[in-house]
Amino acid sequence: MSQNYIPEKMRAVVLTKPTVAEDVVITETDVPKVRSGWVLVKVKAFGLNHSEQILRLHEIEADYIQKPIIPGIECVGEIADPSDTNFKVGQKVVALMGGMGRSFNGGYAEYALLPAHHVFAIESNLDWKKIAAVPETYFTAWGSLFESLDLRKEDTILVRGATCALGYAAIQIAKAAGCKVIATTHREEKLSLIEDADIAIVDDGDLRGKIEPVTKVLELVGAKTVRNSLLLVKERGIVCHTGILGNVFALNNFDPIKAIPNGVYLTGFHSNFPNQEIMTNIFDFFGKYGVSPKIGASYQFDDITQAMIDMDHHKVNGKIVIEM
User: Where are the beta strands (DSSP E) in 21-154?
Assistant: First the structure.
């Protein structure tokens, strides 16, 4: 069988309505046909994400979601058919965002037809399981740290809400970059999960007087604590709002003049705009500093139902990866 043999059928998770984890099944469907500007990727692995859980349980009812839909905002694999793009058959790639798993079918399948502008070539000696932990999680951490926070090795950074896949990645990157890292969790029993930070503390919602002022804050709890985070940075410090772990999605009665101290900056990071340069820089960084992406747990595709059950019941600390 030749390297670029493409079957007519494939296995995939296909959703048509709100679906609890226990009801997720793998079905057989057609391998998508390539078209101009799109590439067919043979999926080797993919990560699970909270936004896919939201889609599966609620968002799928929205009019803007294509149905039936194969979920998955990211995947990694090899080019099976490059169509009319500059990719080559067998080329190692990662793909993320750009409408994956919402506007068009995503990564929960043996093959994925994806727009070339959101598929990125990589060079890496990591195995597929490790590579699959990278695209969405490490891109978001990287963009938050370097694009939004302008992270420098002399910085002291607070990662607030660090016991999540994004938090672990941010600690890992910031430490490799030479920064001092303070990390928080709201549960004392989870302190051991962030022991890679220089200081790990329990967050009761108000950290004033409990840590020294920092130069940068990566706010992963979100609107629930961002007002407090603005009071924890030195003059010329930056707070980047990236996560919403606190399940508070907006700031009510927020007065920027009073809430943001003089000389302090508030920014955010939205992960919908990856590019080739950034993905190349991330994998180069891994090679230069010997960083190995962190995985909470990995499952085979046949066991994806169990993986989703474990995700829904918070049984895994860190990134969940599915291998084909």
Answer: 26-30, 38-47, 74-81, 92-96, 111-115, 119-121
